[in-house]
Amino acid sequence: MKKKWIALICAAVLCIGTVMMAAGCGKKNNYDFVVAYLSAGRGETYVEKLVEEFEKTPYVQDYLASKNKTKLSVKIIKGGTSNIGELVRNSINTGVTPDVLFLNFNMSGLTLTESFVRSKKLVDLTSLLKEKVYGEEKTLEDKLVPGLLENYTTKPYGTDEVYSLPAFYSPTGLWYDASRFYDDGKTGAQYTWKFTDGEHAGKYGLPHTWEDFWKLGDELNKANNNNANASATNPSLFTYPTAGYFDGFIYSAVAGMAGEEKFLQMLGYADNIWSDPGVQDALEIVVKLRNYLEPNTPAQANANDFKKNQEAVIGKIDANKQQTAKGTALFMPNGDWLPGEMAESTPTGFAWGFMPLPAKDADSMSYVNTYIENVYMHKDGKNQDMGKQFLLYYFSNAGAKIVAQQTKAIIPTQDALTNAAANGIEQTTIDLYKVYDGNGAVSGSFAATNTVTGLNWNDVLYNDLNLEIFTSSQTGSKSDETLLSEWTVRLESASDKMRAAIIK
Amino acid sequence: MNDTMVNVSVEEQKSDGLQAETPIRNKKIDKTRVLFIVATVVPSLILFILFVIFPVFSMFSTSLQMWDGIGDKVFVGFDNYEVLFKDDTFWKAFENTLFLIVVVTIFTIGLALFFAAVLSKGKTKGKTFFRIVFYIPNILSIVVISAIFSAIYAPSYGLIGAIAKLFGGTYTGWLGDVNAVMWCIAVAMIWQAVGYYMVMYIAGMDSVPDHLYEAADLEGCGKMRQFFIITVPLTWEVIRTTLTFFVISTINMSFLFVDAMTQGEANSHVLLSYMYKFFGTQYGYAMAIGTIVFVFGYGISLLIQFLTKREIVQY
User: Fold this and answer.
1) What are the chain B neighbours of A306 within 8 Å (beta carbons)?
2) Is the pTM of this model over 0.90?
3) Which domain holds residue B41?
4) How far is residue B33's CA from residue B184's CA, in Å, rounded to a whole number?
């Protein structure tokens, strides 16, 4: 009898549990304001602080008075690249759609933003550009750094309507150990920037053109006995953290070798663009790099070991952070987050160097790729008006100051760059943006498409390079020409499928 | 065993029958009994349908759709499968999964049986010590094991690189070598699993009576022959069960090892890691791979059950 009761109680518990779970599914959005943001990279606090200060603005105070409330009910969804997608998706599926989202395009494994673009869920922000930012006379359009609105992230459908704004922008290019190079005094188009004023006593000259670059590589290879020995005393020319870092590299290379017009055609998946002679020159640069590669790179080019490749440029340190050995590679493609990311394994007094990709020839311009992080609004957000006011606050001087203090980063307004030092941004970061002086700038994001089953465009363009181009056990005895033509075939075939799926 | 069970149930029925005084009372008992059974079974049945049957059905139906997790689901028939069967990476992942099932199973079961035989019937000194040592990898999490092996294989600071350097050789990392990467993962998986299966086989072997071995000894039968004519047949049911269990767990475990060691670099994707790659972007395609894994997993278990069926030897 006792057993029967226990069994019945267990059954009842199961029933109640099931009913409660079912009840939990029908949750409603009772928040005044919902924001989602990617907390990896830019820190865990800046949106919270922005919301806190935004709450003090007259707009929010009026809103609270109309609702007879004293405090905004805010939900903040945040997470890293691995889980933010799931968190936002789950929140939407339970009826709580974020009003404002700080999320990027083109992130590996996270295509949430692309999903919203596909299903036309982004709010048209074109009219917002004409509105004055919080507390100032300037309109949002006037505040923004010129040129950042002309790409497929801000105008995903290739029309004049703006659906997303640049929340952060940073140059990506080639990074190196400044102490290994001597100062050749060149400026202007071949501007070379150093984080700290290094000793300029290095033995290598900085390559300003691709010709210089390959010449330096050949010298290193010769000294390294054709690159066969990983423990060689001379460095290899090049390494990369993972193949994913070739995105900006390819964009800058195409703009530099084929010109900006071809670059834009490429972003629109133009027919036969990959066979264009200029674009082929750019792709050839990537393939050729395999002959100048730090030998351990391909085996470490994954999410677990990519920092080992980054350390190949920095060198080795002891327990007191003193450099015990110079790096085994000279250059790597990366972004402005690198010094912070590698702070733990960077020796004391290390001077980072940063340059755009080498130019086509001495008369041509070098190109810097700008990595744009986006902010946009969702159509199903409950409080769109507040979302828009929040964006106007974000791009104001007040917003820029909070972001600078919380993230040590500069938002893409002209005033933010002017006020950067006053807002507490380190001089080294401010200097980084000087790379735009005299160099061309591009921003790479491809036209929005519908899903093409089984195809990941980023894989074909750069993620697969680690295997298809740089892993010698895979490439065998294939020549550079064969690898280039095979890659071109893969690109053309995938590009055709993507072009057919462009959202119109 | 079966006989005893039958006896018990017959006795139960008898005692129930004795309690029943009249046919009417019998009916009443039956009614409460049925009600009780329904009350206890229905909730679990609902949960079983909700959490087992429904997800499996949902997987099949999603595999016929195009869906990115948020937008509308579009029915596309067998399009996902059509693309999948032409997808080279999928076939490579299938090949890698089969490779791991075959290699890891053969080595793990072989080594586990060998160590179990040595440690259960042999006169090895420090038996308990070795049993513990062999079992330790099983206590460690897969992530820790992957980290240990990644460190061993690492080109810049790993053990293998250091040994190669000692002899003047070069080493640029086997995890980046398409010909070596699956063997590297297999070694880590074997190291992890041997101890667990060894303990299971020891338990099976300990129940084989000593007199059989003594008799074999008297008749001049060698240890190797004893293993094949006494130990293996008498522990066959244990081996058979663990084999099915092991093949299924290899399909699952391979995902964890690949994810923690290579993330599919150097052509090392297995079916589940390749499926996971499409999560959040192409659920329909991912579920088509999931369906293949489901059918393959069931198929291979049935095949093993069929191929390993023997007459049960008892003593």
Assistant:
1) none
2) no
3) 2-62
4) 58
